[in-house]
Specification:
- This protein is α/β, with parallel strands linked by helices.
- The protein is 27% helix and 19% strand.
- It is built from ten helices and eleven strands.
- The chain has a seven-stranded mixed sheet with strand order 1-2-3-9-8-10-11, with helices on both faces. The protein has a two-stranded antiparallel sheet with strand order 4-5.
- Strand 1 and strand 2 form a beta hairpin.
- The relative contact order is 0.14.
- Bound molecules: zinc ion.
- Zinc ion binds next to helix 3.
- It catalyses: GTP + 4 H2O = 2,5-diamino-6-hydroxy-4-(5-phosphoribosylamino)-pyrimidine + formate + 2 phosphate + 3 H(+).
- Pfam families: GTP_cyclohydro2.
- It comes from Nakaseomyces bracarensis.
């Protein structure tokens, strides 16, 4: 791997059946930059972490199954991780290094274009039903888009069951939940998102996407169709000539294409306006859509 990126190691992977679609494979990562548990939510059993699957000295097939380094599907009584007798899949490894040898039949191709979202944790938006931001909506949307061939309302090409949501533990644009709550109070006092962060002596955006890049490369992904409205993110996801953004897939708020769906609140209008006006996000609709009388 390259020198300027963090070292990441996938330590466990598990299949998670979901309430509204295909099984996903949750990957938990450690790294040499922080002590947080960053995640990759992977759609597609054949997208394989190179660090997870690499053979380790002295390990057993049971050890490999327990950490999730298996092909196909686990079932009661299965004894071999590297071969699924029922589905007829087997993995091969380099004899000298122990590294996975990717084969078309069992491993997602390194040249495939892959739908990717790099998502930063947002406790308030994802868990506490916050209408101050659209993180929860965008997270759900990314999952739905990766699962389908095409999104019916927008005709955006989906991932047809293959894709990755990298979930980085950098709450509140990297400032942490406590500081984010203070920023919300400053916003209630009249500041916008950017001003509030600056008043708390934080940068407008303290996020770091280098971990996300290292995780994508570990998953054997080099050509990214990036789900984002943020032009900075396109640059931030590219790395030398090994990680390329081949397409930007827009994430237009659901409420703009369908008045009856998505989040509609005064707070989110202000939040999205700040994203467009202060942070240069490429949202397609003029933001004064619902607030023309008060727009600046
Ligand atoms: Zn949020």
């Amino acid at each position: 791997m390259t020198s300027s990126l963090p070292d990441v190691q996938c330590i466990a992977r598990a299949r998670i059946p979901t309430t509204h679609g295909p099984d996903i494979f949750l990957h938990l990562y450690t790294n040499d930059r922080d002590n947080k548990e960053h995640l990759a939510i992977v759609f597609g059993e054949d997208i394989r972490s190179r660090t997870l699957f690499k053979q380790r000295p002295g390990e057993t097939q049971q050890d490999r199954m327990v950490r999730g380094a298996y092909v196909g599907k686990l079932y009661p009584g299965r004894t071999v991780a590297d071969r699924d007798e029922r589905l007829g899949y087997s993995l091969e490894f380099d004899n000298s290094t122990g590294e996975l040898k990717p084969a078309d039949a069992t491993t997602w191709g390194e040249h495939n274009d892959t739908l990717v979202r790099i998502h930063s944790e947002c406790y308030t938006g994802e868990t506490a039903w916050s209408a101050r931001c659209d993180c929860g909506e965008q997270f759900d949307r990314a999952g739905r888009l990766i699962a389908v061939d095409e999104e019916a309302e927008t005709h955006i090409r989906g991932g047809s069951g293959h894709g990755v949501i990298v979930y980085l533990r950098q709450e509140g644009r990297g400032i942490g939940l406590g500081e984010k709550l203070k920023a919300y109070n400053l916003q209630d006092l009249g500041a916008d998102t950017v001003q509030a962060n600056l008043m708390l002596k934080h940068p407008a955006d303290a996020r770091d996407f280098s971990l996300g890049k290292a995780i994508l490369l570990d998953l054997g992904i080099h050509n990214v169709r990036l789900l984002t409205n943020n032009p900075d993110k396109i640059q931030q996801v590219q790395h030398e000539d090994i990680l390329r953004c081949v397409e930007r897939v827009p994430m237009v708020p659901i409420h703009w294409t369908d008045d009856t769906q998505g989040i509609d609140s005064k707070e989110i209008e202000g939040y999205l306006r700040t994203k467009i006006e202060r942070m240069g996000h490429l949202l397609q609709k003029p933001l004064n859509l619902h607030t023309q009388e008060s727009s600046t």
